[in-house]
Amino acid sequence: AGDGSGLVGAAVDDGGPPAPERVLFPPTFSVSEIKNKQRRHFMFLRWKQQQRKEKLAAKKKRRKEREALGDKAPPKAVPKTIENQRVYDETTVDPNDEEVAFDEATDEFAPYFNRQTVPKILITTSDRPRGRTVRFCEQLSTVIPNSHVYYRRGLALKRIIPQCIARDFTDLIVINEDRKIPNGLVLSHLPDGPTAHFRMSSVRLRKEIKRTGKEPTEHVPEVILNNFTTRLGHSVGRMFASLFPHDPQFIGRQVATFHNQRDYIFFRFHRYIFKSEKKVGIQELGPRFTLKLRSLQKGTFDSKFGEYEWIHKRREMDTSRRKFHL
């Protein structure tokens, strides 16, 4: 057309070789504008694949540039994450703080860390547990040494706790369930508390974990506690540590890990082996689960008259994504 209203990207005939035709999409084009659901899904997958290819190509290019520069290469940029942009908490524990050292020497867990008491754990459930909860308790008892599983038949926790104290149990673990799925954990340190209430999620038994190892041995495992940095997190970490005997048996090569990330506590149980001086192989044994602290109560379990040290209030505490409490 003489007014230039022809196809977008059409070549101008100036006597030279014909230019390839270009198709220009509108600047505001989006995959979400495609009405056909299957076509939209197909185009979205193609777009994601193209994004991955471009990201991989850029990564290879940066690696080649770093190899070419050698020692003169600039330091790698640290990616921004919610974890490393965490808002500073004034209750963060300083390992050299005298007040913290005094509290550790006089709190309820001091006899354990002084090797005056040996952990003895009672694992029980809510009333009439179903098969999945029963299997989870049995597998948890193989992870925690010197633990015993008893199933409740309508017996209140207030009656169970005095019997545990009389039989020299140091901790009580209660696994609650909802619709046949374990969804809560109560950990009470005996005889004087404290008691922690956790919401439990992402429970995976040994058969549900891919490439799981053989059954755990009876060796005392090592315990790893990660990122319990505040005073509250320090108390919760000491509660978990007091469940396991203080002297691990390294010959068993088993590790129980409590990893805190954004106030979610991830539990994993592994066996490791040194393949060489630089390579280590690990094999997950299971079970695995995730905990979220809901409250920390002074003393033993008391739902009516108990005094709470800390309660998670979502509307008041979860005002910032970068604010964490553990």
Structural description of this entry:
This protein has 2 domains: 31-67; 87-318, 3-Layer(aba) Sandwich (Rossmann fold). Helices cover 26% and strands 24% of the residues. A hairpin with a 2-residue loop joins β3 and β4 (181-189). The chain contains 7 helices and 11 strands. Residues 1-12 have low confidence and may be disordered. The N and C termini lie far apart (70 Å). It is an alpha+beta fold. The longest helix has 33 residues, at 37-69. Strands 1, 2, 3, 4, 5, 6, 7, 8, 9, 10 and 11 form an 11-stranded mixed β-sheet that branches. The chain is globular and about 95 Å long. It has helices at residues 37-69, 98-106, 110-113, 131-143, 157-166, 231-241, 314-317; strands at 121-125, 147-149, 171-178, 181-189, 195-204, 222-226, 254-261, 264-274, 280-284, 288-297, 308-311.
